[in-house]
What does this fold into?
Amino acid sequence: MQVTLKIERYNPESDESRQETFTVDVVEEATLLDVLDVIKDEVDGSLTYRKSCRMAVCGSCGMRMDGAAVLACKTPMRPVVEAGEVPVISPMGNLPVLKDLVVDMEPFWAKFRAIKPYLDDGGEEPPVKEWRIQQEELDRVMTEALCIQCGCCVSECNSMEADPDFLGPAALAKAARFVNDVRDRGGKSRLEIYNGPHGVWDCTRCYFCNQRCPKGVHPRDAIAKVGAAIYQEGMHSDGGARHAKVFVKSTHQTGYLLETHLVPETVGAVNAIKEIPFALRLARAGKVPNPLKPHKAKKLDEVRKLNKLIESQEQATLEAANAGPTRPPADPAQAKESE
Ligand code: SF4
Ligand code: SF4
Ligand code: FES
It folds into this structure.
C-alpha cells in the first residue's frame, strides 16, 4: 500500500522548522514506525526519531499523529490509508524538541527522580531471604507497573502545559505504584512530596492521559489513588485537599456544588476577600445562588447514597492497605517450618 505522511522537521543547527511530505510504498501490515524506517532507508537518511524494541515495550517511539500522542510501533497505518488520510507526524508535546521527532526526556526523568521512585523499606531487613507478598497485594500495583515511561501521557497533559513544574501523570502514576505497595514504609514523608506544590492537586482531571496511554496505565486514576491516600492520612492543608473536602461536604448537604462555600473554604477567608470583585461580577450575571438559602437537589438521598457507596469502597481499600504485607516470620526456624 502507499502511505503519505506530513512530518514536522526541526533542524537545531539552523533553528529552522518545516513540514515535509513523504510518500512511500510499504507492506499492508506496516506500522507508523515501519513507514518512518522506509522513509529513512529509501528517501531521507537525516530523518530523526527514536526506536528500539518495535513491540510497545521500551517506550522509545512516542510521537504525535494528528496532534495525539501514539507509540509509532503500535500504530497500524492501514486504517489511515483506507480512510484516505494524510496524517501529520510531530514530536510529543510538553518536552523540548531536540531534532525532528526526538524530544529531550530529561525533564520527564527529573519528575521521576522527584517522586522517590523506589521502595522505602524503612530500614527493615527481610528476616529470611526476601519479603513475601500475596498475589492480591501485587495486583493492587500491577496497573501502574505496566508503565513503559514513553511520555505519551505527559505529551497530552493540559496541566503541564500551564505549569511545567507539575509532577505530571507518568511520575504520579509511578508514585501510586509505591503508595499502594504493601512493602513500602515511606508513609507520610512520601505523601508530602505528592501533596506539595505542583503535586496531585494540580491535575485538572481532563483525563487526556488516560485516553492516550498506550499501555492502559490510567494515570489519572492513579493520581486519584494518591490523592485518596493523602486525604486518608488527614493531610488537608493543601488548597487542593481542602477543595476536595468542601466538594464532598457540599454535595452531601445539598446535592450541588455551592460556589459560595467553595472559594472561602478552599482559599481561606482572607484570600476569599480578594475574589469579591469577581464574585460581584458573577452575581450581576445571575450566576451566584443565594448563600442564605442554598438550593437542594430533588433527589438528594440518591446523591447521599452515592457518597456512602464511595466512602465504603474507600474504607475497604484502606483496610486492605493497612493489613500490610505478608512477611515471613522473624525466626528463620519458624520460616522453615511454614515452608
Ligand atoms: S488528567 Fe491530570 S494528569 Fe492527566 S492529562 Fe489531565 S491534567 Fe494531566
Ligand atoms: S503512564 Fe502510559 S503514557 Fe504515561 S509514560 Fe506510562 S505508559 Fe506512557
Ligand atoms: S520501539 Fe519500543 S515502544 Fe516503540
